[in-house]
Design brief:
heterotrimer; A mainly alpha (516); B mainly alpha (119); C mainly alpha (931); B: 119 residues; mainly alpha; C: two-stranded antiparallel ribbon; 37 helices; 72% helix
Amino acid sequence: MRPVSGLLPHLAVLPIVAPLLAGAALLLLRRQAAAARAISMLSLLLLLAMAVTLVGYTAGGATLSYALGNWPAPFGIATAVDRLTAMMLTVSSVMGIACQLAADGRASLRFPALLQFQLAGLNGAFLTADLFNLFVFFEVLLAASYALLLDLQSPARLRPGLHYVTVNLLGSSLFLIAAALFYGVAGTLNLADLDVRLQALPAADLELARIAGLLLLVVFAIKAAALPLGLWLPGTYGAAPAHVAALFAIMTKVGVYSIARVHGALFAAPTPGGPAGEPLAGLALPWLLPAGLATLLLGAAGALAARDLRVLVAWLVIGSAGTLLTALGLGSPAATAAAFYYLPHSTFAAGAAFLVVERIARARAAPAAPDEPHYLVSEAERVRDAAWVGALFFAAALAIAGLPPGSGFIGKALLLDAAAAAPARAWVFVIVLLGSLVTLVALARAASTVFWKPMARASASAETLAEAGPSGPAPIPGRGLTAATVLLLGGGLAMVVLARPLFDFLLRAAGALVGA
Amino acid sequence: MEVLLATGIGALTAAGIYLALRSRTFELVLGLTLISYAVNLFIFAMGRPVTGRAPILRDGLPPTLANYADPLPQALVLTAIVISFAMTAVLIVISLKLRAASGGDHVDGADGKRAGEDP
Amino acid sequence: MNASPLPLLGAFALPWLAALALFALPNERRNAAAAIAGGAALLAVVLLATLGPAVFAGAVPRVSWPWLPLADADFGLRADGLAWTFAMLVTGIGALVVLYARYYLSDSDPMARFYAFFMVFMGAMLGVVLADNLLLLVAFWELTSISSFLLIGYWQGRADARQGARLSLTITALGGLALFAGVLLLGEIVGSFSLDAVLAAGETVRAHRWYAPALLLILLGAFAKSAQFPLHFWLPQAMAAPTPVSAYLHSATLVKAGVFLIARLHPTLAGSELWFYVVSLTGLATLAVGAYVAVFQHDLKGLLAYSTISHLGLITLLFGLSTPLATVAGVFHILNHATFKASLFMAAGIIDHEAGSRDMRLLNGLWKYMPVTAVLAIIASSAMAGVPLLNGFLSKEMFFAETLGLDAHPILAIAIPLLATVAAAFSVAYSVRFIHDVFWNGEPKGLPRRPHEPPFWMLVPVGALALLCLLVGILPAITIGSLLALAATPVVGGTLPEYSLAIWHGFNLPLLMSVIALGVGTVFYLMLQRLFRLHDLIHLPRGGREVFDLAVSAAVRGARALTEALVNGSLQRSVFLITLGSLLVAGWMVFGSGRPDHVGRVMPLAAHPLAWALWLIALVALAALLTRHRERLEALVYLGVIGLVVSLTFGGLSAPDLLLTQLLVEVASILLLLLALHFLPLQSARTDAPRRRWRDAAVALGAGVGVSAIVHAVLSRPKPDSLAPWFLENAVPGAFGTNAVNVILVDFRGLDTLGEITVLGLAAVIVAALLPRARGLPEVEPGGDRSLMLELTSRAMLPLVSLVAIWFFLRGHNLPGGGFIGGLVLAIGLLLPYLGSGTAWVERRSLPSFEAWIGWGLACATVTGLVSLALGYPFLTSTYFAPVLPVVDKVSIASAMFFDLGVFLTVAGAAMLALTRLGRLSGPEPGAEAR
């Protein structure tokens, strides 16, 4: 048993342990709201620090692999950190911070604890290198998300909750079947070990391995809300409280991440120069591309159809999942790297959008009933301090619709540039661009209805003048919301400015994963 | 033995899915419970179960697969049982609340009308 | 020679900085806002001017930073002749419009915001013309669309402003996306996005098989932006914008971006049949349609909008003809049109502003009210008509000359000059109409106010531009010659052709065409006046916009239909699709890969008769459950039987821990369901149609068969060499436990267990959240499952149960048992008394808050894991010591046991939290409810 020297190696597990401990502690003292918030934020900042450290550590190509309980892999559970993991940890901690910021008086006393457990689950899913352990952390993050969704006593959330839990229970059953089947044919659960053993699998067993792989793909597709398995999402996300919905923006990405991680490791696309006769190579690709494109279109259509602002954003989440699956479906390192760039972008953008929508809904509340936010697009309530809220919405919309200077523009450029080399380029070009057009139309319609139409009733200019000036009406409570929104939008902006170094980083990450 | 196990698991799965496809929360819970039984047996089966070789190590009996059953799937099943039980409990409570809120036990809303998207 | 890039950078940055400042500025500071905007624009002009000498000397000032991780997609600016000229145009006319807008906007309009948007647009436009690679160009291109959306929709209250803004955004964005795609293809072809590389690669591009798609996509983008037929209809709608916006965007800049792009990429893309036909025919159609429709507009701005469309068509046509001279003429006309059209728009704005209307049926005889404006407007519109001594005449002459003697299809060779002349005649007609209707033609009809001259500073910009029209028109060679050469050279690509900028080229065909156009146009206008009483003749353009509206609303309806049909909030559909999906992918593999292989290769294990019996019982119970599931209490019995069989199966197949756990979970679930049935109907209503039940049965059966097949396939294979032996070998020496399963749970795979108890705890928290202490559900009569007998026995049992629980816990590491089983035993032990007499009784046992138990449990397990870090070992590394305790004979305590203690606490806490909260629902005393 060799001892571990220094703290750095432990960073491969502390992002799970820290929030877990914080969550347990917060369960014990959830009565002191202020202290709880402080502890929660502290733990989140710690997580961010760890994630950034790992980004710096892995940037040079170094990786961490950690044997829990000091039991050698593949027998014990191992966790591993590479560039991709480091990036995902960063994204999750940023989302966590935004979520904690946005959670104001309307969040429950338990919220900080649940948020911590949520992050423990997410980080576990990102870190683990063991198939069954991945299942366990999926359950942790799901359980935490059920709790976050149902915590506030709202009858409107019960049915979405029921559907969400049921769908995921089925997904979990499939996951167990797939994982067990892998053990049944290959005798291991450690992903790296599994990869090795699958290569050496007798031909007679290949078919079972394929079935296991595809069932696993179905599981991840459910999480990623891919067509036709994502029908549960709009209702659920649309019903969630804003700060929770914003955090959920990363949940679909977990599915995408797992596809990249598991299927990327076990069934990487056949490399042109690589050894011939990899019987399992590229197993998922033929399913991913069409599913991704269809999901993308459906997401855009749903956004165009939506009457409720939250549902609109939920559909946009589906659309971005479709874009990601499309990129993964292309299979090339460049496309995979584009997916890795698009992933944090779409997470930040969707999160910001959920928060802005909440801000709008509150700003549209009648002064008489400030606690009744208005989410319907067509409600002609005037948006108070429209200039500020409008600017935030505008920024989020640009990012999501993939227009400059939003990070989505770069994401799409990278994706299409990678697609130009692929046989399916025509499909990808047409559908991706059509999707952005429809998204743009949907957002422009919503925006002009929400922000401009109400002006028509009163004498417009006088009002705009009044509320743009300092002498406008008192600002709506929601400083936390605004701060969180700005944080997420800032994240997107940083991705624009740092596009080149970031993409180089991700390109290497993709290369290490799918073998360039 | 293989046949019994295989058909048994299959029967559980089929019944579970059929019930899960019913429109009442109670049947849904029944179905999911059956499915979880099936899944647990499935995991267990992947370890090639044997009779009379519980993986409780005894002195003098060398610790090999010849003398003991594969312990790993059993451990996995234990974890799976607990998790699925927890989730089923959540599901049950949600359906209770749903009944109290909507007055019905239809998975998509009070009987008759479909709940498209919730307000 | 090369020039310092700083002025370039500064000129580009100024509008953006100004925009930032303006966003911060309150709208009341009208003059400050105007000063910031105007100052920025003027300073930009000056900075660019300082580059002039260098640029004229042939240098290309540039500056660039690495940006996009794609081939040469840096963030770079590059000012060659064309770019520099356009930059001057953009900033110069921008400065004039800023001045004009200061007096145009009313006190109620938020001035600072207007100028902020205006500056954003100017910055984006500068980006388009200065970008040194195509991706950057596309980025700024989209930004011009977005900022023009804001400017056109500036009067937010007006419905037509909203629609116009949306329309123009949609069309130009559509074009922008097409351009995006085309540019990406072009970049792939060239292998670089850098403008220099692209401009140098003309041969390669035209030879490439992607040439056609790339060209068409890029042209679509340009045409949409430049309002080319049939995408022209957004421009008239955009007239809802404040007139300064129209004067800037819809004459000099935004719409010019399209033709700029055509000019920019001319050396690369032009020179093919495809280019000639697509570009010149589109241009020709636009030229003709725009000119014709313009004649029949009653709105001043409408007339100007269609005339703009027509002139853009003319420019496009010239680039389509693509001969060196035509190209020069195209660039020339871009400049001329910018000057006279901007001044015309501003004049129209003045008239609107001071006379209160833009309707030419009301505006008449303004000559005596606003002579100065009249003179300026007349100069500008004469230039538009192509009257000699004005700049419009010169470029039109060159245009006519180029339409002649084309070596194209004979029909075209005739049609193009003919249509050109006709269109010119129309443009004369509407120019004459503009002048005659507005300034003469009787008296004003019912204007809201008495017209008068505008403030002096509103006239200055118009005058400046009108003066330019004259100067260029009279002294072309001196005023514009070198600039034109500078701007045209990069477009022609290579050396400029011979041409002379003179008013008089002697009597030739072009001159004749001009004369004809002037004469016919005037006559045509007068005839229309006489014969058709033009003012009563209502003739509005149909098509484009209506089609667009229909398309959008159809799209929305379609999307609604699709999504509502697909996402109908049905859970059963989701379940069905998930099952079907898994069935499909699995089935695909089996039948798709054509090598189904389930032949048993190991001796089947003989089944004990007891196993057969159990199996039979289970099947019977299943059948009963399936047929009788509507009788819910009965169904629970069957479920119990099935669960029992499952547990016994585990037991029979050497898994005692599973037997125990499954049994306990079994009991717990059944109890839960019993409870639930207090609140759920005891029978299920029949709602599913038989067809549906058959469909479901089929899918379910399929899934069952599939699973059976997989299980059998696996069982009939030899066990692969797996991790298993290692666990057996290391359980005792490594983890000091003889129960391999428990050792795996608490040690080898401790992280799984940590996650598992977290899930359990969270589940309990959810239950607690859903069932708060306040009653969440209506009072319901408790069921009949509460007998005195059970009550007494259960109370007696409590201490015993607790002891058993601890015993299970302690022996767990070596024999079946462990933290989980122990915890569950304890919980159930506490649950039974509840069944007897309600939770109140349990609570009187003054147990601590169960939620806290969960917290402590998780903390205990986690901290145990962390201890090893202090010793320099990985998380969850276990250590070992062995005291001998009474009661339980030999106990080997690994540190893992503290971990297991955490499990014990969490499980017990979770189970009891959930069960007591549930119990409270049917608790007997209202007192307990209230608490």
